[in-house]
Amino acid sequence: MRWRLVAIGLVVVGVAALVVVLRDGERRPPTPAGPVADAFAYDPERREQLERRAAAGLSHVLYARSPGGAIASAARTARWRPIVEQVAADADLEADTLEALVFLESAGRPDARASDDLEGAVGLTQILAETGRNLLGMRVDVRASERLTRGIARGRKVAARKRVRRRVDERFDPRRSLQATARYLTIAKQALGRDDLAVVSYHMGIGNLQRALSRYGDDEIPYAQLFFDSSPLRNEAAWDVLAGLGDDSSTYLWRLYAAREIMRLHREDPDELARRADLQTRKASAEELLHPPPQETEVFGDFEAIEDARSDGRLVALDPARLSRAGLRIDPRMGELAARLDQSPNLYRALHPQALATLQAIGVGVRAITGTRERLTVTSTVRDERYQQVLAARNIEATDAYSLHTTGWAFDISRRYRSRAQARALQFMLDRLTALNAIAWVREPAAIHVTAAAAGG
Questions:
Q1: What is the dihedral of CA 56, 442, 328, 7, to 10 degrees?
Q2: CA–CA gap between residue 105 and residue 255 (Å, rounded)
Q3: How many CB atoms lie within 10 A of CB 338?
Q4: In the CATH hierarchy, which top-level class contains the domain 298-452?
Q5: Could you read off the pLDDT tens digit of each residue along the chain, which spans 457 residues?
Q6: Going by DSSP bridges, is the β-strand pair 328-330/376-380 parallel, antiparallel, or unpaired?
Q7: What phi and psi, each to the nearest 5 degrees, are found at residue 376?
Q8: How far apart are CA 51 and CA 38, in angstroms?
Q9: Which of 319, 430, 419 lies closest to 374 in space, CA to CA?
Q10: Is 208 helix (H, G, I), strand (E, B) or coil?
Q11: What SS3 string covers 95-145?
């Protein structure tokens, strides 16, 4: 427990310093002392900024996994806008929020099913059969719906069967589905008192959300406060509820806001949507959106470029002692291919100053959460393009195209953990920094590959 109270200032650059540079690029002197938990404390003045960051940080999955891609899903969803606006106006809801829910739940497909079992989530807004019947007053005859669905799958009298299915299972009727969702959100708002909490409960459930709020000790707060002010170090009882759900319920609101932004771009700036969709899907994370390819991001072509960057401060050498105080160690094999380029491995042990701050923040946070002196192992940092080519020729997991390692913004952390507690703590840090839009990351076979965002990114 004593280590949980170690001051941020003792580790030179830590979580608090990272949060400081995340304030829309505004740089403020870091708090000279204070527990690690304070870095995750909620600031009501930054609520809108936190919500924007969370939407941006959690948007990758929408681009990567929406059926047919985000652009196609936005086009399908937009077809329902007239009905969405009518239903939203009747229920006193925001049309943009209801539309984003359609994008998130079904990607605009009225026949979408979560599984072959029609007791599960179905339709434009993915309503469970039991919820539809017992809470929302819908007609849901699952047996008849399944029989008709099998007939539709066989391809005979499809249009006629779909018309009948919409009558016997109103979840397949777009208008009825939207109206039922509007009723749910109205019921949830009456129970929870806030629009944002009502939306969260659409995935989490009203009871689960009430339990998390109760554990926090305040049932009238914005969801941003519950989410960002709860962690293994702060309001742990509330965090336990959110983390214990075992799904992505806790981030549902941020992904819905991301969907809302995609729909806005679809209407107002399709070229920007296309640009983001391209960058979001080039890699297994959003790293290229954080630092677009070479025309917009400095890339180190050879060892001389790295030497110049280190000499003028664009890159900072890893300091083993400072890393150790931050709960990190350098893998002795880092830069092991340098000899093939007649260079020292130490040349390839450096990062952009802000990427280094992010790395140390992760180490500080993990050590504080575990309450031990265990260290994470950093396996890779900056490379030049020549080093990357040599690596790609030997390692099928390495790309011979644009690598964020060649920019000094990326680093790898070994997946060989000292304990399960260390692994869980690292996962929390990755998830929380993603929700702050401070990193993009991907799990590789041997390492966690992390790309740090620029200040104000």
A1: 20
A2: 11
A3: 19
A4: alpha beta
A5: 323 323 233 333 445 545 444 444 433 333 333 456 666 789 999 999 999 999 999 999 999 999 999 999 999 999 999 999 999 999 999 999 999 999 999 999 999 999 999 999 999 999 999 999 999 999 999 999 999 999 999 998 999 999 999 999 999 999 999 999 999 999 999 999 999 999 999 999 999 999 999 999 999 999 999 999 999 999 999 999 999 998 899 999 999 999 999 999 999 999 999 999 999 999 999 999 999 987 789 999 999 999 999 999 999 999 999 999 999 999 999 999 999 999 999 999 999 999 999 999 999 999 999 999 999 999 999 999 999 999 998 888 788 789 999 999 999 999 999 999 999 999 999 999 999 999 999 999 999 999 999 975 4
A6: parallel
A7: -80, 155
A8: 19
A9: 419
A10: helix
A11: HHHHHHHHHHHHCCCCCCECCCCCCCCECCCCECHHHHHHCCCCCECHHHH
Sign of CA dihedral 114, 119, 123, 126: negative
Query: Would you state the structure tokens that stand for residue 82, as one six-digit string?
Result: 């007239």
DSSP H/E element including 357: helix 353-370
**Per-position DSSP letters for 287-320, written without gaps between them:** HHHHS-STTTS----SHHHHHHHHHHTSSEE--H
The span from the CA of 136 to the CA of 185, in Å, is 10
Partner residues linked to 439 by β-bridges: 452
Separation between Cα atoms, residue 313 and residue 434, nearest integer Å = 26
Task: State the pTM of this model.
Answer: 0.91
Q: Please tell me what DSSP assigns to residue 44.
A: G
In one letter, which amino acid is 142? Answer: V
Q: Are 20 and 396 in contact (CB under 8 A)?
A: no
Q: Is 169 helix (H, G, I), strand (E, B) or coil?
A: strand
State the residue for tokens 């590789």. 444
Q: Are 244 and 251 in contact (CB under 8 A)?
A: no
Q: In which residue are the tokens 């100053």 written?
A: 353
- In 3D space, the residue among 435, 198, 294 whose CA is nearest the CA of residue 427 turns out to be 435
**CA gap 411, 397 in Å, rounded:** 15
Are 180 and 138 contacting, i.e. CB atoms less than 8 angstroms apart?
yes
Length of the chain: 457
Alpha-carbon distance values, 207 to 131, 211, 223, 256, 362 (Å): 14, 6, 15, 20, 33
Name which of 448, 353, 360, 361 is nearest 409 in CA terms.
Answer: 353
Neighbours of 161 (CB within 10 A): 18
Q: What does the block give as tokens for 360? A: 């140390």
